Amino acid sequence: MEESEGFVRTLARRRWPRLGGYAFLAPALVLLVAFLLGPAVWVFGLSLFNWNLISASPVFIGLENFRVLITQDPLWWQAVRQTFYYTFVSVPASMGLGLLLAVLLSRPLRGRSLLRGAIFVPYVTPLVATIIVWQWIFNADYGLLNSLLGALHLPRPGWLASSTWVMPAIIIYTVWQQTGLNLVVYLAGLTNIPAELQEAARVDGAGAWATFRRVTWPLLGPTTYFLLLVNLIWSFKVFTPIYVFTTNSGGPGNAAVTIGYYLYEEAFRFFHAGYAAAISVALFLLILLLTGLQMRFFARRVFYA
Amino acid sequence: MLRGRWTVSLAAVLVLTACGGGVTTQQATASQLGPLRHHVTVTFWEAMAGGSQKPTLEQITNAFNQSQPYVTVQLQVYPDYSTLLQKLEAAIAAGNPPDMAQCYENWASTFKQAGVLANLTPYIDAKDGLSASQLADYWPTMLADAKLGGKFYMFPFNKSDSVLFYNPVMFRSAGISHPPTTWQEFEQDAQKLTDPARDQWGTDFSLQLGYENLWEGMVTEFGGSLLNQSQTKATFQGSAGQQAIDVWAQMVKNGYAHTVEGYQDEDDYGSGHMGMMVSTIAGYSYDVASVGGRFPLKTAPVPAGPKGLAVEMFGTNACVFNKASQDVQHGAFLYIKYFTNPQNTMLWSEKTGYMPVRQSAYREMEKTFYPQNPNLKVAVAEMPHTMFAPSVPSWEEAQNDLLTTLYGIVQGKQPAGPALQAAAQKVDTLLTTG
Amino acid sequence: MTVSRMRVAAGLGRYLLLALFAALFCFPFYWMLVVSLSKPSDVFTFTPHLWPEWQFRNYLQVWQSADWLRLLANTLLTTGGRVALVLLTSVLGGYAFAAMRFWGKSVVFALVLAVYMVPTEVTLVPNFITLSHLGWLDTYQVQFVPLGASVFGIFLMRQYFMSLPPDLWEAAQLDGCSHLRYLALVAAPLARPALVTVGLLQFIEGWNAFLWPLIMTSTEKIQPLQVALAAFSFVDSTQPVLLAAGAFMTTAPILIVFFFAQRQLVGGIATTGLRG
What we know:
The complex is a heterotrimer.
Chain A: H1 2-46, E1 49-50, E2 59-60, H2 64-71, H3 74-105, H4 112-124, H5 127-137, H6 144-151, H7 166-191, H8 195-203, H9 208-219, H10 221-236, H11 240-245, H12 259-268, H13 273-303
Antiparallel strand pairs in A: 1-2
Helix pairs in contact in A: 1-13, 3-7, 3-10, 4-7, 7-10, 8-9, 10-13, 12-13
Chain B: H1 2-27, E1 40-46, H2 53-67, E2 71-77, H3 81-93, E3 100-103, H4 105-113, H5 121-125, H6 132-137, H7 140-145, E4 147-148, E5 151-152, E6 155-166, H8 168-173, H9 183-193, E7 203-206, H10 212-221, H11 239-253, E8 257-260, H12 264-270, E9 276-280, H13 284-291, E10 298-300, E11 311-320, H14 326-339, H15 342-352, H16 359-367, H17 369-372, H18 374-381, E12 386-387, H19 395-410, H20 416-433
Parallel strand pairs in B: 1-2, 1-3, 7-8, 11-12
Antiparallel strand pairs in B: 3-11, 4-5, 6-9, 6-10, 6-11
Helix pairs in contact in B: 2-15, 10-11, 12-13, 15-16, 19-20
Chain C: H1 2-36, H2 57-65, H3 68-99, H4 105-116, H5 124-133, H6 151-162, H7 166-174, H8 179-190, H9 192-208, H10 211-216, H11 225-235, H12 240-272
Helix pairs in contact in C: 1-12, 2-12, 3-6, 3-9, 9-12, 11-12
């Protein structure tokens, strides 16, 4: 009797502090499970149904959506190709430019924070507003860019009205918009490199380029890796620039349709919930692969710091 | 002047109404709805977002709200039809549609298939509905278009078609004496208007969704059709469809036509860089604004093909959703009736360029308005030559594919034959899977 | 002598290059202003003029064309709600992970890590279905409640709380302080820099939010500025002057926030790489 009472008391004493953490975590957990984790699991289930949200109830069709996606949907593959085009041009360009500017800004300089701010500000301003002005800059007839090209006797591309040039235009915008992020993160990475290491290399007679290649670049490895993943994930999901630049059309001849835009179109223009879920799953797997890589790195850098 | 004369004819209409109403009452069974006597609020989703469309719709709606004690209509405007459709479908999917909306024919088919549309017949027949003679005053083509399976699931609201807008100053300096009446002349005139040294060119091919309508009309003009009679198979891939789009491909290739995004054709025309464009009369107030008095804006009928003239009628009908209570549906129809009464459809037409949906209004406008505004008469005069886009539910998606295909052809990326063939296959699949 | 002169030349070159890039990156903002202040007809020429014409009436016209105050209020309300909710869930959650011992902690920790891997875009379709059944579409709460927890926020706060000296908690415990009182009175105030970072990042994300409100809302009464601005750009695509004025009006507040909080923002973003 006494023994069991003591046991109960221990249990009670133990249990309270042992579960109290959940009271603190509950608000976050409820939201994360209800609106992120739950839907992320459910989307796999949804992808097995044919479900037009407007007119029909869901019908189970197994992997049919994926079969159609892979074998019968040229627009999906066009979206994949165009997403890769967008990603693998804009990411290296904005990272390269960000690194160059970070190196130039890494040594003390008058007005340094002003210069940094000037390059960084496109990254924090609303996409829709800045796209509106870029749309006008890219206008084939009255835009500033083509006036400039015309004055230099260069060809004047159709930009947003041309299936060949619409993606390059959006890429130029993206580089303008994203370089600030890369600059700032690289700058933080550079300040973490001990100045003595670079000095030592210089004393050994290495030139600026050699110092960069042999000392700075390798030491920036983790930063580059981190940025690469952040940029890649952002690019794979890109939606807003496509939507606004092409006024919700996907561009001439669908030439600006990306995976993110195609997902939106199938889900919220045609309301093919099942098919859109299948596209979501494909996008998810792609990003999961990248985020998994990012986690291995990030866990070390931030979470267990 | 106009107003004074109008009062007389309005009185005549009122007398007619009274008699007509009486006749209907006698014919009607006990199930005829009495006049609406409860207060209701009606939400109306629409896409009359710019130009003079927005203020005029607001003006008429406010007047309606103040004219009677029972119905209050609340407008919710969307930037374009595409967005309106997306939001409507989202709301329907969520089981929470508005009370009424502007609807294209194929949207209404989709909504009817989903079982969310209200049949308007009881409200047309109601004591405060439309008399037989009033109903007969609407253009018969428009009424026919508003029916699905023989029943009024829509009602004519804002209707338009395309006309040719041209710049008479540029025409004169290019030595062109009259606007083109055939596509052959159109092509020749586009060439004459093109002068790269002066930053001038003939016409534009826009990638705006809706521009495929132009080609859809041309298919008929060249002797073809879009779908077969039962709307189950594509027929546009035939030689008529190919010839029609080749007209444009040729002009783009030669630099007489520019391909542009969105509504840039209006800017190109208004700023005096581009000489002529085929565009909807509903854009009239926008075009007047973009011309800004730089030259006298002129319209003419759309050029004809080997088989004569054909233009697609667009603009929307109004439809009512059956989730709303009977009183709300009733109130929505009273608003439609008010908006399309002779006086208001005339006001709407004069301000925006849309066609008056009632013949009596047209006759009235012939007296003084059209003589003073011949540009707007062109659209109505084309009415005998109008056709409608297919009303099948999947047409919205099909149009999307068609525009992409047409763009590919116009850009010279692929020849018309195989490209249209491929599009036809896709459309066939859409038609069968719905 | 020559070495130092070379250094000066190199320094000047570096300076010029940076200034050139800074000007290039800022130019679109200048251009936004120029176009927004032009005479509407003057922008349709093949040779653009590069200076503003001070047509302030463009702003008046844009101001009258929509209920901007309402849109601004919508944006502030939903952004504010989001900031407040994320701060609350992050502080509580971060503290639980950092300072409390409870059963199953490592499992929950792994769970939250797993959530980190889920991009919002992937959850749009299921969320749309759930939220429509809840009747939350086109409401204020749909614009911030579902986004009210941030894995980043939780981990950032956790990291900060872990860096607090343990003696603090021991001393507080001796005074009879509960976890909640300790957190509210001691730990959270000490974590102000981290709170500012999380709050600022959420503010920017909230202000710039687009895809989520685009899908989940449908009427102007509820919608934020960015969604309305995009709609505006679709309607008035033929009036670049008015569009530029609208764009500038909605950009200016962010430019002001940026001006005053550049250091915290840059610092915060440099360490976390703002998602979005």
